[in-house]
Amino acid sequence: MTNSRSAAPHAPAGPHSLCSVYSADCGLPALLNKSSTAPSLNAGECYRRKDHNAIVKGRCCFHRSPTTETTVWSENMDTLLTNQAGLDAFRTFLKSEFSEENAEFWLACEDFKETESAEKIASKAKMIYSEFIDAEAPKEINIDFSTRDLISKNIAEPTLTCFDEAQKLIYSLMAKDSFPRFLKSEIYKKLVNSKQVGNHKIWLPFL
Predict the structure, then answer these.
(1) CB 3.0–4.6 Å: which of 37, 40, 46, 101 could bond 139 by disulfide?
(2) C-alpha–C-alpha distance, residues 19 and 202, integer Å
(3) pLDDT of residue 67
(4) How does residue 68 score in pLDDT terms, banded at 50, 70 and 90?
(5) CA diameter of the chain
(6) If we measure between CA atoms, which residue out of 85, 90, 110, 112 comes closest to residue 100?
(7) Could you tell me the sign of the dihedral formed by the alpha carbons of 30, 31, 33, 38, in that order?
(8) What is the pLDDT at residue 14?
(9) Nearest to 205 by CA among 71, 55, 96, 65
(10) Is 60 helix (H, G, I), strand (E, B) or coil?
(11) SS3 of 121, please?
(12) Nearest-angstrom CA–CA distance, 9 and 159
């Protein structure tokens, strides 16, 4: 009697079917299909659990694509700013547009909000003010008069929230203006391309 159970739709049969599916779908090298040591796996089950970042089924795991990181950055600026490589690339772009002070101010504010000592709060606030807020600041940021004036009045007795409004304005400026241009820049394109070069690195623990 013939077994009526068929493989999952579009899943190629054979002992190397898992590698065949993922080498075609994720851009992995065809070398995977030539492995003579790959185990016989249930192609139907593995195919239904297809995951580009990590497949753990039948002892088969693929290295996460390095390109995933850079493409995630394009989704929102928060993801970019919390990744060191992404932040470095973004700052390089801002420097090329003579607006690196925006990222520097944002980072200074993030550090400032983590300050616990009252003495350090006062010293850091004065440093941020003289560096970015004061009318003669070497890295003066572009904020409206009322926000700048309010900070100037409160700087004598600073609190952890004294730069919040200015930080929101600078964040909005970067998100609406600089960030979209960064994603279209040669700096970002080169970074994505460099990650794609490493896209052929594979981790196959059963080899």
Answers:
(1) 101
(2) 11
(3) 54
(4) low
(5) 89
(6) 90
(7) negative
(8) 45
(9) 55
(10) strand
(11) helix
(12) 61
> How far is Cα 111 from Cα 157, in angstroms, rounded to an integer?
18
* pLDDT tens, position by position, 174-186: 999 999 999 999 9
Predicted structure pTM score:
0.62
* Alpha helix (H) residue ranges in the chain: 17-25, 43-48, 66-73, 77-81, 84-96, 100-112, 118-128, 145-154, 164-173, 179-183, 186-197
User: Burial level of 53, CB count in 10 A (0-12/13-18/19+)?
Assistant: exposed
Q: Is the separation of the CB atoms in 138 and 105 below 8 Å?
A: no
Token digits of residue 204: 């196959």
**Whole-number Å distance between alpha carbons of 29 and 202:** 9
CB 106 within 8 A of CB 205: no
The mean pLDDT of 79-91, rounded to a whole number, is 91
Amino acid in the structure at residue 186: E
> Which two tokens mark 28?
């992995």
Structure-block tokens of residue 183: 């994603």
Residues 6 or more apart in contact with residue 133 via CB below 8 angstroms: 140, 141, 143, 148, 151, 152, 155, 163, 166
> Coil, helix or strand for 200?
helix
Predicted confidence (pLDDT) per residue in 4-19, tens digit: 444 444 444 444 434 4
Give the pair of three-digit tokens for residue 43.
């192609």
Six-digit token pair at 148?
A: 């700048």
